[in-house]
Design brief:
The complex is a heterodimer of chains A (about 180) and B (about 200). Chain A is mainly alpha-helical and about 180 residues long. Chain A is about 70% helix and about 0% strand. Helices cover about 70% and strands about 0% of the residues of chain B. The chains are: A mainly alpha (about 180), B mainly alpha (about 200).
Chain lengths: ~180, ~200
């Protein structure tokens, strides 16, 4: 049975999971933000928890980053993150998780396939639109510049979409009761 | 779990978190209204002086927090110079570096507890529409507690993987990690309910 306490713990758990995924071995990039599994956590939060809980979970995560916990990839954190050129991505985490959840809940096909499509839309399309939009706003229309930098992260993110589908596919078999987006 | 608060004590540490956040918001709005690179350079200089006035060690700490930005800022500047608008390039880089430094200054000089108290206080008007700040306080505490637990679990999974394989444990451990912590989550929720749950005696 899904209780309020279960919801709260799951929301906190996925916020913590995103933090921990940011600490797994990463591929360093010359401009300081490494390719990490962090956005995998965002996709998973939406695909597993569903729209509302997934969004809240990521809101909690970026709230803690704002409070000064170094939870973002590369040990970044604090209020400075929200005025730096990549702020759009961080602010986009809750939106991305929410959209992933919405797609996951409404796409009544095989959970594995659905989670792949959902995380592609939420975790890549929405997240990049927010990220590039933020860069555009904060740097006075440096649009092409931002797209050039950000394109280098897309191959890694496609791998994460596949991973999300694999994890969700395995969860359906191992712990279907935990796939709250399909309850 | 370490917050980014600086151990080097500055007079700013004694200020109230709300005051610092208010001043920061005003400063950042002002920075975005300034368009002239000369004025922005002045603002950057003042910020640097402010950091320096709290000691060389503190200034070095502030500089370290800016490090991840250096390639981004360099790239933006280069891009604008190629486009033939160096003045805009300098303005953008100075504005971003100053805004991030000022925001970091609040982070460096404010204890996590004070910020959490501020968030709870800001959330307290929600009481009138029937929302309690309790779940918020509890979920913050839960995340702060979960992170080291998950890290330890991830390390165990990595060790177990290394014991059986010559490959490096990368994404292979993510699935078992998630399944095992979902199990934990159920236990934590049950324990919360057993102690009165969200409606119970828990008081932040």
């Amino acid at each position: 049975m899904q209780t309020k306490e279960n919801d709260l713990v799951m929301i906190a758990l996925f916020a913590a999971l995103v933090a921990v995924l940011g600490l797994l071995p990463a591929i360093p990039m010359p401009w300081g933000i490494p390719v990490t599994a962090q956005s995998l956590g965002v996709m998973l939060a939406g695909a597993v928890l569903g729209a509302k809980r997934g969004g809240l979970s990521m809101l909690l995560f970026i709230g803690l980053v704002a409070l000064g916990l170094p939870l973002l990839a590369g040990g970044r954190g604090g209020l400075g993150v929200f005025v730096s050129p990549t702020a759009g991505f961080v602010v986009g985490f809750p939106v991305a998780a929410f959209v992933t959840g919405v797609v996951m809940q409404n796409l009544r096909i095989d959970a594995m396939v659905a989670s792949g499509i959902a995380s592609l839309i939420g975790g890549i399309v929405v997240l990049y639109v927010m990220g590039i939009g933020g860069f555009w706003m904060l740097t006075d229309k440096g649009l092409m510049a931002s797209i050039t930098i950000m394109a280098t992260y897309i191959p890694g993110d496609l791998v994460k979409v596949v991973l999300t589908a694999i994890v969700v596919g395995a969860l359906v078999k191992a712990r279907p009761q935990s796939l709250l987006s399909r309850q | 779990m370490l917050a980014l608060t600086s151990d080097i004590h500055t007079p700013l540490h004694n200020w109230r978190a709300g005051v610092k956040l208010g001043l920061l918001s005003i400063a950042i709005v002002t920075l975005y209204l300034l368009k002239s690179p000369v004025l922005l350079a002045g603002a950057a200089g003042l910020t640097a002086l402010l950091y320096r006035s709290f000691g060389a060690k503190f200034a070095a700490q502030g500089l370290r927090m800016l490090k991840p930005l250096r390639f981004f800022l360099g790239f933006i500047l280069l891009w604008q110079v190629i486009l033939g608008d160096a003045a805009t390039g300098f303005a953008i880089v100075l504005r971003l570096a100053t805004a991030v430094s000022l925001a970091n200054l609040v982070t460096l000089s404010t204890r996590l507890d004070d910020l959490i108290d501020l968030v709870i206080w800001l959330a307290s008007p929600a009481r009138f529409i029937g929302l309690s700040p309790k779940p918020l306080a509890l979920s913050i505490a839960l995340v702060v507690r979960f992170v080291p637990v998950l890290l330890e679990r991830a390390n165990h999974m990595a060790d177990a993987f290394r014991a059986r394989s010559t490959k490096r444990p990368t994404f292979y451990i993510i699935l078992p990690l998630i399944v095992s912590v979902l199990e934990d989550a159920d236990h934590v929720a049950l324990a919360l309910r057993a102690r009165g749950g969200l409606d119970g005696a828990f008081n932040p």
